[in-house]
Amino acid sequence: PPPLLEPLFPPQPGASPGFAERVRQHKVRLEWVRAEPAGLRGAVRVLNLAYEKAVSVRYTLNGWASCAEVPAAYQPAGPADGLTDRFAFLLPLGAAAAAAEAALEFAVRYRVAGAEYWDNNGGANYRLRGRQRVPPATGPPHDPDSPAWIHFI
After folding, report:
1. Cβ contact 4:133 at 8 Å
2. pTM of the predicted model as reported, rounded to 2 decimal places
3. pLDDT tens, position by position, 64-120
4. Residue 107's closest CA among 75, 131, 72?
5. Please, what are the domains in the chain?
6. Mean of per-residue pLDDT scores for the chain
7. What is the C-alpha separation between 105 and 33, in angstroms, rounded?
8. What is the DSSP string of 65-101?
9. Residue 16, CB half-sphere, CA atoms under 13 Å: how many?
10. Ranges for the CBM21 domain (predicted)?
């Protein structure tokens, strides 16, 4: 089976206490991520400062020797608080992340009303590492003539 990207941070920051306050204070925060065969899927919450806004995720697989950036899509069925909006993203990692030694780093960028805000996990970036999936354990084949079997008459 292909390797799995394992977050080196809590994968659901949006479920932690004080999340809404952190969004208000910093304007943008990662809400959750999930590794999938297609790549890394996630959601970002931003403070609704203006109607027009752009959210993107900048990422690297080689320690920032090169990077790519993908836009996040506005989610109309977002939070009902009226203060924030939700954006969803998919980092299409493909074969580059298929190696067990893969390391992914990313940060979220929010541009609104002439300003730019970043969520880079407090300066450490959001990091994930490749981890080889362990195939399901299968025991030895059962031999009915094995001495391990006890027959009752």
Report:
1. yes
2. 0.81
3. 999 999 999 999 987 888 899 999 999 988 755 555 567 899 999 999 999 999 999
4. 72
5. 5-129 (2.60.40.2440)
6. 85
7. 13
8. SS-EEEEPEE-SS--TTSSEEEEEEEE--GGGG-STT
9. 13
10. 20-129
